[in-house]
Specification:
Blueprint lengths: L3 E7 L3 H12 L4 E4 L8 H4 L20 H6 L9 H14 L6 E2 L4 E7 L4 E6 L4 E9 L22 E3 L14 E5 L3 H13 L2 E6 L5 E3 L7 H19 L20 H14 L15 H18 L3 H7 L12 E3 L2 H4 L5 E5 L5 E5 L2 E4 L3 E3 L2 E4 L8 H4 L2 E3 L6 H4 L18 E3 L12 H21 L2 E6 L1 H15 L30 H13 L5 E5 L4
Parallel strand pairs: 1-2, 1-6, 2-3, 4-17, 6-18, 7-16, 8-9, 8-16, 9-12, 10-11
Antiparallel strand pairs: 4-5, 5-6, 13-14, 14-15, 19-20
Helix pairs in contact: 1-13, 8-9, 13-15
The chain binds NADP nicotinamide-adenine-dinucleotide phosphate.
Length: 536
């Protein structure tokens, strides 16, 4: 048997780094396993041109260390991938975390041993490690949706998935590039690829809503304001439904204002940029009619920016409410369609048939390409856990337990899988919240729980079936009346063929969720079964 730790942590992104720091602060031993060659998670893998965060930098960062917060200076309103990676490397160094991380190591299996109340974790290097706790800090958008297009391997040129971009970058100069997909990754990368390539052909299955980032150097007034009021603003962010202060949500209902006023409100928020548009009215995510007013506003914006009316019409989303899929935040996306070297193929008019050696063939034509970019997203929220052979009590297999969709208690633990924690798991706000806020809350809840267990010499904690059933029912119940089930989104697993259609994140709002987690803990971990261990 290999080494033994209090906890094994899988993944060295935002979650894994903070988890390691917290457990070490509590005097516990922990080992992080990370498949990449460095820290960063999402920001390590997603290096495509134009990759940047869609929440203002000062909000999309750790708040646990006032010193870190005070010393780090962001150079852009929305930090780019290289800057975020630099930040996470700085965090790893500043808190001395590197020696606790084993890189280029993928965890392949985690099996719970009931006799010892410990997990045995196996890696692709053939190691076995045991630990009382196993923390899955594996990320929600970390497993790329594999391109399954017929003929894919016949393509003569290079091809890349945006989520697995080469570290050395890609030079598109003089090339004809095919981009498949029009989600956030495509919307951020297309303007940059088009500025370099000879020609870009974009293959669109569903147009998305995108709002301008108005990115640039941070506004000095905003920086000064944040510096003076950081603690208060961080607190205010945590009191908003999405954990984002810049959304600046109003309670006014769209139906309470006339068309001209609404237009003025939307216009002001369009000028602010980013997710502020979704904060315009209190009913945009709950009332389809209210939502339609914002849809109409953005549709007109698209028609105003894109000069060719036929192309503009193809780019206007018509099949789902705004916000029901993650809103995209762009720099010059719609303008890119005014360039001579950019063309749009609507896959609803001409379905994609196959990839051929020289490009992409649809039902109507073959589009020649020297390179293909697959911007087709991720097996979200459950993908990374599904890749690990996770077995709980009685050898129960997590993948089988989740065959009809993920079931958790609070998105943190799963009945039948004691001492296994998931950071921002399905059933928690996760992707419907500022991830930095959601991650900190989960890491702190998990580490507090582990400390509490230690103080009481408890060997195992496990969600009860009853608490899990009740929570899953609640997660579904709160999602049902919202706009969210009205889109074929990755929130529902709809982007991965064969994946069960279940609304995975918790839409009840971050403060409600956090209070529930705190109440559960304060009541002695209500809804969890606790096992004492005489050996402790
Ligand atoms: P995505 O939002 O899932 O978009 C994937 C795109 O590929 C969609 O347009 C999808 O079309 C298309 N697609 C998938 N399979 C296809 C197929 N077989 N044929 C044709 N088209 C296909 O993925 P993403 O753009 O990588 O973004 C995922 C999430 O990551 C975002 O929602 C966001 O949360 C996060 N992200 C954030 C940023 C940021 O701004 N900071 C940047 C990138 C990603 P359908 O819509 O029809 O399925």
């Amino acid at each position: 048997m290999g080494q033994s730790y209090d906890a094994v942590i899988v993944g060295a992104g935002f979650s894994g780094l903070y988890m390691l720091h917290r457990l070490r602060q509590q005097g516990l031993t922990a080992r992080v396993f990370e498949a990449g060659t460095g820290v960063g998670g999402t920001w390590y893998w997603n290096r495509y041109p134009g990759a940047r965060v869609d929440i203002e930098s000062q909000e999309y960062s750790y708040s646990f260390s006032p010193e870190l917060d005070a010393e780090w200076v962001w150079s852009e309103r929305y930090a780019s991938q290289p800057e975020l990676l630099k930040y996470l490397n700085h965090v790893a160094d500043r808190f001395g975390l590197r020696d606790g991380i084993q890189f280029e190591t993928r965890v392949t299996a985690a099996h719970f041993d009931e006799a010892s109340n410990r997990w045995t974790v196996t890696t692709d290097r053939g190691e076995t490690i045991t630990a009382r706790y196993c923390v899955m800090a594996t990320g929600v958008l970390s497993v790329p949706n594999e391109p399954a297009f017929p003929g894919k391997d016949s393509f003569q040129g290079p091809s890349w998935h945006t989520g697995r971009w080469p570290h050395e970058g890609v030079d598109f100069t003089g090339q004809r590039v095919a981009v498949i997909g029009t989600g956030s990754s495509a919307i951020q990368s297309i303007p940059q690829i088009a500025a370099q390539a000879d020609h870009v052909t974009i293959f669109q299955r569903t147009p998305n809503f995108s709002v301008p980032a108005h990115n640039g150097p941070p506004d000095p007034t905003v920086v000064a304001d944040w510096t003076a009021n950081r603690e208060q603003y961080r607190r205010e962010a945590r009191e908003t439904g999405f954990g984002i202060r810049m959304v600046d949500g109003r309670e006014t209902l769209a139906s309470e204002e006339d068309e001209a006023t609404r237009r003025a409100v939307y216009e002001a928020r369009w000028q602010v940029g980013g997710f502020a548009l979704l904060g315009a009215y209190g009913d945009l995510t709950s009332d389809l009619d209210a939502n339609a007013t914002a849809v109409a506003f953005v549709a007109d914006k698209i028609r105003g920016i894109v000069k060719d009316p036929a192309t503009a019409e193809k780019l206007v989303p018509k099949t789902f409410p705004i916000g029901a899929k993650r809103l995209c935040v762009d720099t010059g996306y719609y303008d890119t369609f005014n360039r001579d070297n950019v063309s749009l193929v609507d896959l609803n008019d001409e379905p994609l048939v196959e990839i051929v050696p020289t490009g992409v063939r649809t039902a109507a034509a073959t589009y020649e390409a020297d390179a293909i970019v697959y911007a087709i997203g991720f097996d979200a929220m459950t993908g990374a856990l599904g890749k690990i052979d996770i077995r709980g009590r009685g050898g129960a297999v997590l993948k089988e337990a989740w065959a009809a969709g993920p079931r958790t208690y609070l998105g943190l633990m799963v009945a039948g899988f004691p001492n296994l924690f998931i950071v921002t798991g399905p059933g928690s706000p996760s992707v419907l919240c500022n991830m930095a806020v959601a991650i900190e809350q989960h890491v702190e809840w998990i580490s507090d729980c582990i400390a509490w267990m230690g103080q009481r010499q408890l060997g195992a904690i496990e969600a009860t079936e009853a608490a899990q059933d009740e929570w899953v029912a609640h997660v579904n119940e709160v999602a049902e009346p919202t706009i969210f089930p009205h889109a074929n989104s990755w929130y529902l697993g709809a982007n991965v063929p064969g994946k069960p259609r279940v609304f995975m994140p918790y839409i009840g709002g971050f403060p409600v969720y956090r209070d529930k987690c705190n109440e559960v803990a304060a009541a002695g971990y209500q809804g969890f079964a606790l096992t004492s261990d005489a050996r402790l």
